[in-house]
Design a protein that fits this description.
With about 425 residues, the chain is mostly helical. Strands 2-1-4-3 form a 4-stranded antiparallel beta sheet. The radius of gyration is 30 Å and the shape is flat. It starts with a helix and ends with a helix.
Length: about 425
């Protein structure tokens, strides 16, 4: 199949040119499936039972239709609306008149399970698990099933109602699939995660470096009830009575140990009243040079986080401008191809022991009569994320990259991101 893909436009299918050989990396990333039916519907079942073939083909066509997709989105949207309505009426409605009761949850759960079963029947286990969104749907459905089991079991519902509510709300995350822009944001974030590992390591080393210095400088100072007579006295005042109203817990932002120092530095990173923490340490140490420690840490973390935000924004902008410059037909042509193989070509292939075993298990190609002119059509699909997606973006035609460059993303920066 890979050879047929590489030589599909060649007049000499016996050899490869240098241009064809350069497409080997893209060719090996295709996942091939046999197409059956007049509309080219993928059928994972390849046995001789015509009834099962027809059922699987029909279910596959049904679950891949737009109507089924929008029906699932409508179901999730209705579920979300009922959850929001129940949250708004939770203070004014008794247990006998709640909107989202156990019976309603059971109906939604059965519909979600039916969706998973239909997809497994129409796509097969391997085809179902090959899509990350299907795995996400399966995990969400599993969490919903767990919440329903907790309700119907002898589990203490009243004591652990917060856990059940959180598990119910997880299914709302399925709405990320509904709009393509949401999927683009999620997909770009997944692609960027491996490239941000080095930045996270640098940030951890920076935290460890300043945590050790902070412990050496400030671990001997007690911040409890410090700063008396200063504007920040109320933040560090702690009443001896545990039920008193006036309590300030900023004394817990200290450098007495490595975990406490890490938490304090994290609060400084997110600029959580960092000036109050800094001024408290200035007061207990009695020197204004203490501010230098906090200012240097703030500036260094600001630089690292700015680099992270800039990389994320650049990736999002590049992807949006790429999708605007490249037509959908061109993009789908890079992510899916079809290849035809005749019965003569199949008969010339050697039959190994694994191929005979797969044939017995009805998981191999259908049997073709020798000398027939039957053609088998295979479709190769790439995942729309990861290295395949990056290769699809950065192997775009030069004129498309020129359009992107003229739209605001310079050619040098595009090349840099491609190298990354």
């Amino acid at each position: 199949l890979i050879w047929k893909f590489l030589t599909r436009a060649s007049s000499k299918p016996d050899s490869l040119t240098s241009a064809e050989f350069s497409l080997v990396y893209q060719a090996i990333s295709f996942k091939w499936n046999l197409l059956s039916g007049k509309e080219g519907v993928t059928c994972w079942y390849r046995g001789s039972n015509k009834v099962l073939v027809k059922i699987v083909t029909s279910v596959s066509s049904f679950v891949s239709s737009k109507g089924f997709e929008f029906a699932v989105y409508g179901l999730v949207g209705l579920n979300t609306a009922l959850l929001v309505l129940q949250a708004g009426l939770i203070q004014t409605t008794d247990q006998d008149h709640i909107v989202y009761n156990t019976e309603v949850g059971l109906v939604f759960m059965l519909l979600y399970v039916a969706e998973v079963v239909l997809k497994l029947l129409g796509m097969g286990l391997r085809g179902y698990l090959s899509c990350p969104w299907n795995i996400f749907d399966l995990l969400v459905t599993t969490t919903s099933l767990i919440s329903l089991v907790l309700v119907f079991s002898s589990y203490d519902v009243e004591e652990h109602m917060s856990t059940i509510v959180v598990l119910r709300l997880v299914r709302v995350l399925r709405l990320f699939r509904m709009k393509k822009r949401f999927r683009d944001v999620f997909g770009t974030a997944v692609i960027l995660l491996p490239h941000l590992v080095s930045t996270v390591i640098v940030l951890q080393l920076l935290y460890y470096f300043f945590a050790i210095i902070g412990m050496e400088l400030f671990s001997s100072y007690d911040l409890l009830n410090c700063c008396k007579g200063s504007p920040i006295e109320s933040f560090y005042f702690h009443h001896p009575e545990p039920h008193a109203v006036l309590h300030g817990f900023y004394f817990m932002n200290n450098f007495h140990s490595l975990p406490e120092a890490a938490i304090t530095l994290f609060e400084l990173t997110v600029v959580n009243n960092w000036s109050i923490i800094m001024e408290a340490h200035v007061i207990v140490t009695g020197t204004g040079w203490t501010r230098l420690y906090f200012i240097i840490f703030y500036l260094l973390t600001l630089v690292v986080l700015t680099i992270v935000v800039a990389a994320i924004l650049e990736a999002f902008l590049f992807r949006i401008q790429y999708k605007k410059a490249l037509k959908k037909e061109d993009e789908s042509g890079q992510l899916a191809v079809t290849v035809n193989i005749s019965s003569a070509e199949l008969s010339s292939l050697p039959h190994s022991l694994p191929s005979r075993l797969l044939s017995k298990l009805k998981y191999s190609l259908p049997r073709l009569e020798p000398g027939s002119d039957t053609l088998l059509t295979f479709r190769g699909d790439k995942r729309q994320g990861g290295p395949e997606r990056s290769c699809s973006i950065f192997s775009t035609r030069p004129e498309v990259l020129g359009q992107i460059a003229s739209a605001g993303v310079g050619g040098g920066r595009v090349g840099h991101r491609a190298g990354v």
